[in-house]
Structure formats: C-alpha cells, structure tokens
Structure prediction request, 406 residues.
Amino acid sequence: MRCDRIWRNARLATMAGSPADDGLGLVDDGLIACGKGRILYAGAANAAPRDLEAPESVDCMGRLITPGLIDCHTHLVYAGNRAHEFEQRLKGVSYEAIARQGGGIMSTVKETRLATDEQLLAASLPRLNALMNEGVTTVEIKSGYGLTLEHERKQLRVARELASPNVRGMNITTTLLAAHALPPEFAGRADDYVDEICRHILPALIKEGLVDAVDAFCENIGFSREQCKRVFNAATAQGVRVKLHAEQLSDQEGAALAAAFRALSADHLEYASEPGIEAMAREGVAAVLLPGAFYFLREKQLPPIDLLRQHGVAMALATDHNPGTSPLTSILLVLNMAATLFRMTVDECLLGVTRHAAKALGMSESIGTLEAGKQCDLAIWNVERPAELVYAIGANPLHERVWRGA
Ligand code: DI6
Ligand code: FE
Prediction:
C-alpha cells in the first residue's frame, strides 16, 4: 500500500478505545501510516498491512502519539488586553464598577472595532502560535467583540484567514457569538438588538459562509433564555448548529435550552442542574468545561462532574481564551486544572481535548481519534505515560506536531 509517511516504534493513545479501557485505546508497539493527509492505518505494528511502503519512515523511539489536540472554545480574535483591569480587581475594584467605567467586554469591543483586519491578525497570531506549540491542530474561534454586522464580519473573516495554510497549518471552525453582550447603540433595548442579530447579522454572515455554528451567552449579565431561544430559532431556520454559554454564573436553564435545540454543546455549566444534564444526555449534547475561567474568576461552584459522568454526557475541555475571564493559551495547563480543580481523571482530561472536543464541534467524522480515514493530525510527545501530559505544570513535552500528515 503506497503511503506518504509512516511513524513506527511508537506508543499510541488512539482515543478510540472502548469504555472498558476508559477510551484511551492504548497500543504499545504502534504504527501510523498516512496518505494524502489522511490516516491509512493506526494500530499495532504487528497487525499493520504487510505491503506498506513510504518514501519516509519515522522511528518515534518509543514516544507517545495522540491525536492532534483540539481547543473547542476560544474567543481568540480581538484587540487589546485587560491587564489594567486585572490590576484594578487586585486592588479591590469590582467587576461591576469596572463595567460601569466602560471596562469589561465593552473595552475589548471598542478596541476590536477600531482594529483593522491586519491588526487583528497580528494580535491573534501569537495566541494561535502558543496553542500550536502545545500540539493543538484544531481551534474553534468565536466572534462577539464586534456586535455590529460590520465588526462581527471582520472578526469572523480574520478567523477564516488564520485557517489559510499560508498563514499557519491549523483547522479552524468559526462561531457567531453576536449575542455576547449588549452594544452601546442598543443600550436598554436588548430585544431590539436580538432582532438585529436574527434579522440582519446572522442571516448575512451565514450567507457569506463565515459561520460554522451560532452561540449565545445565556446569563443575567448576558441574554435571557427567551432571547437566546430567538437566536437559536434564527440559526436553526438557516440550518446552522448551535451551542451555548450556559450556567456559568447562575442557573438560567440554559443546558435544557441547548438540549431542546440538540445543540452541539453547552459550555461552562458550573451552575447546571440535574434536569438540564439529563436533557443534555438524552439529546447527545456535549459538555464543554472551562477550568481557566473558573480559576481566573476564583469561582467556588464546581461544575457537576459526577452528574455528567452518571448521565454519560461527553465532557470536553477548552481554554475559553478571552481577555476578560480566561487569558489562557495553554491547553496543557487546562488538562492539569481539569484534574486538579475539577477532579477529572487523566483519561477524561485527554478525551476532553481529543474525541469529546471533536464531538463538541460536530467534527467526530474527521478528527479527535487515531483511526483510518480521519485527518492525519498528530501530537508526538516526549513522555512514556499519558498521565505525564496532565500531571506536569508549565512543562511542554511536545516533540513534534503533525497537521494533515505533514
Ligand atoms: N463568558 C465569559 O466568561 C466571557 N464571555 C462569556 O460569555 C467574558 C468575556 C470578556 O470578559 O471579555
Ligand atoms: Fe467563552
């Protein structure tokens, strides 16, 4: 069988295992063959096709290979930063007082509206590089700092630009999050802004091919359950999948709303209730847990991990990179936080940034496990045991990142 490249003498964590082995699908003496950017074989070397031949065969010297990591929830494209607010908060100024001074999300909106495409690209590249340097091969990027058709379009256009192979080698999926905050032009008129989203912003940007999914911030300081439902109806009418920032700071029954729309995922979930989790399980909605925001906000309410486990809800993990509540670009630190703060197991953590993250993006057909037919996105690690990827803090054991076989 003609291949482009073979990796041999490796330990594989295929993430395609059965629940019996906790899903990591470990293979001690493994081999991966790829052709035209796709995996042709991934498994035990002694069961590989006998006729494999490739111009290049890589001896991995016993290193561990996982699927390329997936960061399934980021707000990566924006201008400026909020370090000054961080400093104010440390001096005791409240989040609300900062918001009243025009800070918070609105300060990032102001800077993002003023930025050109080139400036947004230049500001986002270091953040994308940081993720790539830790073996990330797929990133979800949300809008939500423009809040007008023109500026939401600009954010999503830059997100698409980041995906072009001549910029970086990265799979990027975009999410419209116009329902992130109320823009000043609509102060006191949230329903009118939701009309603007449903009638103008969402249909236009979907038609322009800039939107892979639609999200909303269902929260007291965001949008009500009813307003999010209107956004979801508009997205669904256009045949676009939805996801939701749900129960981050209070129980708005967002998880149940996400389930009612068979959403790809419900994200945060610190304040989720059992009925909402049951509904998610029933409708196959993934949970996306975001320990970076939990840590940075010094949140005390843990997400209901045991309930998610009991009901068999797939748990994904992500950085939630954003300048206000999770200025975090380390997916490896997310793994340690999920274990240390949320008490998730090593296997749950690693599945959270591979197979379950792919499910949260609706991309299980093409990424998230080492299986024939999937995209050949790999992370090759200088570790013996998968647990080392979750255990170490601040270390980066990545040996090589492979995107589409190269
Ligand atoms: N939840 C969050 O924590 C961020 N957005 C959201 O929906 C906050 C974004 C920011 O503060 O810039
Ligand atoms: Fe977020």
